[in-house]
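Researcher: Batch entry, complex prediction.
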Amino acid sequence: MDTGSQRRLESDRWLDRHGDALYRYALARLGNSDAAQDMVQETLLAAWQGRSGFKGASSERTWLLGICRHKVSDYLRQSGHFAPSTAYNDLEMGMDAEFFTTAGAWRHPPDAWTPAPLDEIEAEGFWNALQACLAQLPEAQREGFVLQTLNGVEPVDVSRLLHVSMNHLYVLLHRARLRLRQCLDTHWFGGK
Amino acid sequence: MLGLPSCRDVSYELSREYMQGASARRSWRVRAHLLICGACRRYEQYLAWMRDNVRRAADNAASARLSHAQRERIRQTLHEQLD
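Model: Structure tokens for the complex:
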């Protein structure tokens, strides 16, 4: 039987190890810090109640993000916002024409730039620019990017979480990166 | 372009490669395209920069993390609920 201190220890460990990842995920989907904080709390409570269901088939973080995903969808549904169904179907046919000519050449070739690693001072500015650009992405692309690139979830686990095939995930993330480049060219790279 | 893949195809292949990480293999056709296409080389630089810096920004930007006060509030609530 779990004692109170065991329960506290486990929830503290989850909060310390995964709290920021859950927060970033919820923040990217909700755009609201207070609501994102609530989602972290609800996720960890639900995780504790359902901990026997964690079989270790995925990482602990992936399992928690899966719970958080449901919590965020419930929140969006209850607050009258669009909540994606379990299967995404926005392959955005025709989007390629926005970025490439019919012959497949870039319409707006990436600008020349000198890549330099972000320093700690620039991190906040870049993060804000990235948040603004992420907010402009279609929901599925944003969610895929946040899970895979921002939170480091393995692609195969992202495809399971989003209920999409690997090929579909590659397309979603490819399009997310194209859109982000365009947006960040204006809001970050171009201004540097 | 000399029977080589288009920029559209190469940008997709590069994106997939960056997601697959070390297990990805680059075809000679993509390599050949990159040799003669500066725009796609710049796109590859962008992908590499994003891979190396997005998580760094998230780890270093204060607004990308739970604040100390938020974290303690959650901890307190969890303790109350789990007791």
